[in-house]
Amino acid sequence: MDYPISIPENIKNILQNYGNIIYVQHSDLTENRQFGTGYLVLTSECLLVVSQSKIVCRFNNDDLREVFTEELIGGGRVSVRSETGIFHLLYYSNHLVEDFAKTVRLINDYLKGSSLVFPESSRDSFCKKCGSPLPERSGNCPRCVPRMKILKRIITLAFPYKKEAVFLLIITAIGVLLQVLPPYLTRGIIDDCIGRGNREKLPFYVGAMIITGILYLASRLVHIRLSSWISNRVVTDLRSNLHRALQYLRLSFFNRREPGELVGRIMHDTGELQQFLVDGLPFLIINSLTFIVVGAIMLSLNWKLSLAVMLPLPLLIFGTSWFWKKLHPLFLREGTIVGHLHSILSESLYGLRAVKACSREEHRIQLFNNVNEQLASTRVSTQLISGSFNETIYWIMSLGVSLVWYFGAKMNESSSFSLGDLMAFIGYIWLFYGPLQWFSMVLNWMTHAFSGAERIFEVLDTVPENHRNDKCVEVGKIRGEVEFRNVHFSYERGKEVIKGLSFRVAPGETIGLVGRSGAGKSTIINLLIRFFEPDSGSVLVDGIPLEKIRIDKLRSSIGIVMQEPFLFNGTIAENIAYGMENVSFSRILLAARAAYAHDFIVSKPDGYDTLVGEGGERLSGGEKQRIAIARAILHDPPILILDEATSSVDASTEQHIQEAIGNLIKGRTTIAIAHRLSTLRNADRLMVLSEGKIAETGSHDELIGLDGIYAEMVRSYNSVNALQSVVWGG
Amino acid sequence: MPVKIRWTRPVSGKGEEISFISNDQEYLIIEGLHALDPLSRAIVEEELEKSYYLPKINEIVSTEVFQGNRYFEVQTDKGRCRFIIKNPFTSIRKMAQGVLIRDVVGNQYIIEDMEGLDEKSRRELEKVC
Predict the structure, then answer these.
(1) Quick one: which of A631, A628, A553 has its CA closest to A587?
(2) Which end of chain B, N or C, is less surrounded by CB atoms within 10 Å?
(3) Which residues pair with A77 in a beta bridge?
């Protein structure tokens, strides 16, 4: 028997006398709800709780009627219902809600004698490598970011531009050499021309200096041109790939993320990466090279003096890293506050109407000012520290220069260390110290850019929806039979929305889904169109499981009319024809007529060419609905999903919409989340959802006769409608 | 019929109103524990204690930030544990007394007395918020 969690040997020993171990589920809380490990063990004879190497409680399987979980606040608990009552077995934190839900299902199956389906290895809540919690189940562990791996990956991004990159490296090396030349020439002028009096060599030296300067300028210009071109190409490619990846990702990826964050990722993280590639990386390379070359030259000139130069080095390095340790959390803080300021600002703007209606302008101003002040004080601290840091580092460097003057002048007296050598040395010191000053900053920059890159790679690496997977079979024209087989689904960890749903819809049937808000109606739609995958069970179309159907084939065979139809930036005609190529206007017209939309469209100033969407004209709810219906009619899919809007419209619009819907569902397999009595009456069958399962099913009249949940809903609907007609007078 | 007993206002007014919920509908709300007789009070208190898991943070051992995720390692009255929060502005809430922290999984922790935190814990906290 294979169970996902291996239990310690000593526990296995304790359980020896209680039958064969069937399944083990661990908890992150002990039996007295302390952080630790507890185990729920199912054996062939009994159900036990083991904690701290002791058996805490035991129930014989024969005595058990049911095992169930309860969701509490900050965790959950698993309990049994036996002949003698209800007993709580074990508590666990939210990390394990999903695991216990699956375990309990398994145990109940076992108790009933049904065949057991062992859950596949559970998705990790903790990183396998470092043991820290994961922000996403089975996601990447941000802590275990292998810097080298990311650097390598970033470099591979430049592979398409190999030639240019190599050329860039050569130019960089040349630049470094040219930069190192002037102090040498200075030495020559001082010693040769002035010292030894070879004045005629002066034009030669000065000429060399000027030429070096010009060549250096040239090399810099070429460098800048090349590096900005390459880094821009790399980042543009990245942005494009990122956007492409996002388009093809599963909807579940977006479920728990805010769109703003992803926009930030594409624009901000790529921007940071770009900055690093343009400025940071070349800086790093140039200065590392300069550092090495200058160090070598200084050592060759006079190793004793070089030591004096190196003396302040440890102080420099220590000071820099100490300062950056202080600065880093402040930068983070700044970023968080800025993010918070953004959200307050956007809330003030999006919620402007509510703010004004409740006269809360001053309150919002106060809120904004509070955070604004926090930002100011953080920034002051940051600038204070980094300012002082810069000046202090500068001072440390000048300390090194003083040392060189002292020892250098002494050496000049006693040995063959010329004035030129000394001046050259002084020149080299700045070239030597300069890079060090910024090394810590660049390393920090690198960390930022790398974590940005990591976020980008995370998106690129996430398995997309399986488009054109080879597991797919060729499907001919879809007839429109839909089946759900024992489907379980939860959006969030452990909160099951669909708990074992099974139903079958024949081609052409119209099914109405009813139930309270949150009962799972929209979820069924999401599962059918494969925006999400079921936790277990399967969804089939024409008898074929959805995983085996090419996703674009599936989605082109399903039409949706949503509650809040989304209109794209474009004309009304383009919106009706959205998703279809080469559609003649006459067909668009026909569809609009059938959707009872034609009349209001032609009344608009630009008719079918009216621009709608974000920048365009605002349509009323009823108008949007009918355009969505027209879209679906034009599309003519074998399966239709109708998510009826709950917003009420005036009576004549309502009539139009009802007739439009009537036109729409003719001859199609329709699954409608129904709110209108007319839709419900005309459906072939109704399914009443409650607690994630189908509670009642039948036609409208049959269900009224049943006098159950459905009947109750209709009664309250009628009384609400009656009230409405009294209030609105019709 | 299974009954859920929950604080009506766990964050702003814990120790006050209590809701009795069945089938997702509240059927009773009381002003507070003081409105009950001793026997009922004991039962309700026990049930409330069982329904909420709220470790009290005594010490913040360490904090780190990676990719915007704040990692905490803390010592609580229930032992040592680790968790992650994403956005400190939304994950950390001021309660009537103390501070409530909710992590990415939905687990909750409370710092009952912010002033009583030792210097190190305070520094660690400031690092990430």
Answers:
(1) A631
(2) N
(3) A70, A91
Confidence at residue A481, expressed as pLDDT on a 0 to 100 scale: 92
- Amino acid at position A416, single letter: S
Query: Domain-by-domain residue ranges, chain B?
Result: 4-51, 57-128
- Chain B residues in contact with chain A using a Cβ-Cβ cutoff of 8 Å: 6, 10, 50-55, 64-67, 69, 71, 76, 78-84, 86-89, 103-108, 126-129
Element (H, E) at A499: strand A495-505
Question: For B69-102, what is each residue's pLDDT tens digit?
Answer: 889 999 999 999 999 988 787 788 888 788 999 9
Taking only the tens place, the pLDDT of each residue in A451-491 is 677 777 777 777 666 555 667 788 788 888 999 998 988 87
Task: Output the CA–CA distances (angstroms, integers) from residue B10 to A110, A155, B3, B6, B35, in the order listed.
Answer: 39, 51, 18, 8, 18
* Yes or no, beta carbons of A336 and B88 under 8 Å apart: yes
In A311-360, where does DSSP find H-type helix? 313-350, 352-357
How sure is the predictor about A1, in pLDDT bands with cuts at 50, 70 and 90?
very low
The answer to whether the CB atoms of B105 and A95 lie below 8 A apart is yes
A729 and chain B in contact, CB less than 8 A: no
Partner residue facing B107 (CB), from A74, A333, A336: A74
The class of domain A157-302+417-464 in CATH terms is: mainly alpha
pLDDT averaged over every residue in chain A: 82
Report the pLDDT averaged over residues A531-543: 87
User: Residue A217 has what pLDDT?
Assistant: 94
- B69 vs A contacts (CB less than 8 Å): 135, 142
Interface of A with B in 77-106 (CB under 8 A): 77, 88, 91, 93-95
Closest in A33, A135, A339 to B78, CB measured: A33
What CATH architecture applies to the domain A9-112? Roll (2.30)
| pLDDT tens by residue, B57-73 | 999 999 887 766 889 99
Helix, strand, coil percent content, chain B, rounded in steps of 5? 25, 40, 35
C-alpha distance from B129 to closest chain A C-alpha (Å) = 6
- Contact at CB, B76 and A35, closer than 8 angstroms: yes
d(CA A579, CA A602): 23
Interface residue A38 vs chain B (CB under 8 A): no
Cβ distance B88 to A142 less than 8 Å, yes or no, reads no
Nearest residue to A341 (alpha-carbon basis) of A370, A381, A362 = A370
CB B104 within 8 A of CB B86: yes
Q: What percent of chain A has pLDDT over 70?
A: 91
Query: For A12, how many CA atoms within 13 A lie in the half-sphere containing its CB?
Result: 9
pLDDT band at A6 (very low <50, low <70, confident <90, very high): low
User: Between chains, do B84 and A336 touch, taking CB under 8 Å as contact?
Assistant: no
CA distance A643 to A656: 17
Give yes or no for a contact between B13 and B97, defined as CB atoms under 8 angstroms apart: no
Q: Which whole number is the average pLDDT over A151-173?
A: 84
pTM of the model: 0.69
Bridge partners, A488 (sequence order)? A499, A536
Task: Look at the block and give the residue holding tokens 């000139």.
Answer: A301
pLDDT for A588 beyond 50 = yes
Compute the count of residue pairs across chains A and B with CB atoms less than 8 Å apart.
89
For residue range A518-536, list pLDDT tens digits in order. 778 888 988 998 888 888 8
Q: Give the pairing type, strands A558-561 and A639-643.
A: parallel
DSSP output for B90-105: HHEEE-SSSEEEE-TT
Cβ–Cβ of A132/B106 closer than 8 Å? no
Which chain B residues are within 8 Å of A133, Cβ to Cβ? 71, 82-84, 103-105
- Cβ distance B82 to A133 less than 8 Å, yes or no, reads yes
Contact A431, A179 (CB under 8 A): yes
